[in-house]
């Protein structure tokens, strides 16, 4: 990454050097970062205070691009092709233009004659610029995300549209460059892949505003190939997506690198300290009523069919039996209703929940009583035996970017060599959904590698209730609600 940044800066410096020479400005200024940009601003006619933008994280990326765009326009490079080349290779294109004997400085932007373009050219440039700008914003600052499943209810609801902040934890550099802009895995409304994995770049993370903390709501690429093909029954049809194109999950981080996480009787602990429970955390209850419960009751408590409750039928006493995912407060209110006979919490292992991670025969963990388990951190060294291989072998094999990892009864070998201990190359996190009895999370598939972290859940900008009536379909009270 450092070499890449040095190459970029060298290209820009060479371009500035020749530009300053052609405009009778001091060429040595090209050697001093920031000061050279300040001099370039004079050439394009920007005010001196504009330099402030270059000191604001994320904003400085856009400010720098605008400066280069404008500087090239001052040398007559205004075509759509020039703009596209500038976006992807400005550090090469700028010196090429500057060293071209036929290019001349035409003056400051406000001094240049207005170039009239046809409607097609204007629309093409406008659309291209919009797509590029949206792609850059999506990559560096903010990305829209929709809540598709009830795993975070009632903190986040199915139908919530939210923005995910990329700059809080630091923006990741792209790993899969051959991808259609503004797509994820497939081209819109088709089953056609929107990317080619012919080129896979190493990923780096730009500096962020903060680090992930216990209790943060985090969006990440779910790591396992099994989870990424959860609805695909035929294993031969499974797709091993690149890291940045794996499915996006949103969960609450309950353990950060180095933490010892444990769940005892449904309470999460980290390093022996109880984690503060989300106020709208849910569990699964069995509710028995003297008769079928009216739909208005479920609407009152914002409980959706299938997502939150299911009618199980009538018992031997002809009473209606329901399984309902709800908060403790809603359970208490429902229990007080005159026609409700009982409300009982159902332990997570009582209804056939899948095996918990790490699926080690000696462990009798459940989703309600789990751990303790230590979360790996970069630089953590472990001795390898049956127990540690069961806990951490999956990470060593899949997510540590090791070549040719083999795990068998005799231990672990990397590239043909047996190893007796291992030092982790990156941090890991432990994620859980607030809907504790209806969430496929780290309790069942393991840790989240640091290079799979997408961003921080920021705020809800729209929420749609698919079960609501025409006038109540939009949840107005959730507009611009911050995510906590």
CATH topology assignment of the largest domain? Umud Fragment, subunit A
* Gap between N and C termini: 33 Å
Major sheet attributes: 8 strands, antiparallel
Residue stretches low in confidence (pLDDT < 50, at least 5 long) are none
For CATH, the homologous superfamily of the largest domain is named as Umud Fragment, subunit A
| Count of runs of 4 or more consecutive helical residues | 10
How much of the sequence is in beta strands? 15-25%
Structural class: alpha+beta
Shape: globular
The overall average pLDDT, rounded, is: 91
CATH architecture of the largest domain: Ribbon
Number of DSSP strands?
21
Give the count of structural domains.
Answer: 3
* Cα-based radius of gyration, to the nearest Å: 28 Å
Share of helix, binned: 25-40%
**CATH level 1 name of the largest domain:** Mainly Beta
Topology, element by element:
Elements: H1 2-22, H2 35-44, H3 59-73, H4 80-99, H5 119-140, E1 142-146, E2 160-165, E3 217-221, H6 225-228, E4 248-255, E5 260-264, E6 267-270, E7 273-274, E8 282-289, H7 295-300, E9 309-314, E10 320-327, H8 328-335, E11 340-345, E12 370-374, E13 381-383, H9 386-398, E14 405-408, E15 411-414, E16 417-419, E17 421-423, E18 428-432, H10 442-445, E19 448-449, E20 453-463, E21 481-482
Antiparallel strand pairs: 1-2, 2-20, 3-4, 3-20, 4-18, 5-6, 5-12, 6-7, 8-10, 8-11, 9-10, 13-17, 14-15, 15-16, 18-19, 20-21
């Amino acid at each position: 990454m450092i070499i890449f940044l040095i190459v970029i800066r060298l290209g820009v410096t060479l371009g500035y050097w020749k530009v300053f020479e052609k405009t009778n400005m001091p060429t040595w200024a090209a050697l001093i970062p920031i000061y050279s940009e300040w001099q370039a601003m004079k050439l394009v006619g920007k005010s001196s205070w504009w330099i402030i933008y270059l000191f604001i994280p994320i904003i400085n990326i856009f400010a720098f691009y605008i400066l280069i765009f404008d500087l090239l326009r001052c040398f007559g490079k205004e075509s759509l092709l020039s703009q596209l080349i500038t976006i992807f290779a400005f550090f090469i294109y700028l010196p090429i233009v500057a060293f071209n004997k036929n290019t001349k400085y035409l003056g400051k932007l406000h001094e240049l004659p207005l170039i009239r373009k046809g409607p097609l050219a204007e629309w093409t440039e406008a659309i291209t610029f919009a797509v590029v700008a949206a792609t850059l914003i999506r990559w560096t600052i903010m990305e829209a995300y929709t809540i598709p499943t009830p795993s975070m209810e009632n903190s986040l609801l199915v139908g919530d549209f939210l923005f995910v902040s990329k700059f809080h934890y630091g923006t990741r550099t792209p790993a899969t460059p051959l991808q259609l802009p503004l797509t994820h895995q497939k081209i819109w409304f088709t089953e056609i892949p929107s990317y080619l994995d012919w080129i896979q770049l190493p990923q780096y993370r730009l500096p962020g505003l903060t680090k992930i903390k216990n209790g943060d709501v985090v969006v990440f690429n779910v790591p396992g190939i099994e989870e990424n093909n959860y609805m695909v029954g035929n294993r031969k049809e499974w797709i091993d997506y690149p890291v940045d194109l794996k499915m996006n999950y949103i969960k609450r981080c309950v353990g950060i690198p180095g933490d010892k996480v444990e769940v005892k009787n449904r309470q999460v602990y980290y390093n022996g300290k109880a984690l503060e429970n989300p106020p709208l955390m849910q569990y699964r209850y069995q509710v028995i009523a003297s008769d079928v419960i009216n739909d208005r009751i479920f609407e009152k408590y914002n409980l959706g069919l299938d997502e939150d409750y299911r009618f199980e039928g009538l018992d031997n006493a002809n009473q209606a039996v329901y399984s309902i995912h709800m908060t403790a407060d809603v359970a208490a209110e429902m229990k007080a209703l005159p026609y409700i006979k009982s409300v009982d919490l159902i332990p997570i292992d009582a209804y056939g929940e899948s095996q918990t991670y790490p699926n080690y025969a000696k462990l009798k963990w459940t989703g309600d009583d789990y751990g303790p388990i230590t979360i790996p951190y970069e630089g953590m060294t472990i001795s390898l035996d049956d127990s540690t291989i069961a806990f951490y072998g999956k990470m060593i094999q899949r997510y540590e970017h090791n070549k040719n990892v083999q795990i068998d009864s005799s231990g672990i070998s990397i590239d043909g060599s047996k190893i007796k201990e291992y030092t982790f190359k990156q941090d890991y996190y432990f994620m859980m959904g607030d809907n504790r009895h209806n969430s496929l999370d780290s309790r069942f598939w393991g840790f989240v590698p640091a290079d799979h972290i997408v961003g921080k859940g920021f705020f809800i900008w729209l929420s749609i209730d698919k079960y609501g009536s025409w006038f109540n379909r939009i949840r107005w009270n959730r507009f611009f609600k911050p995510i906590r």
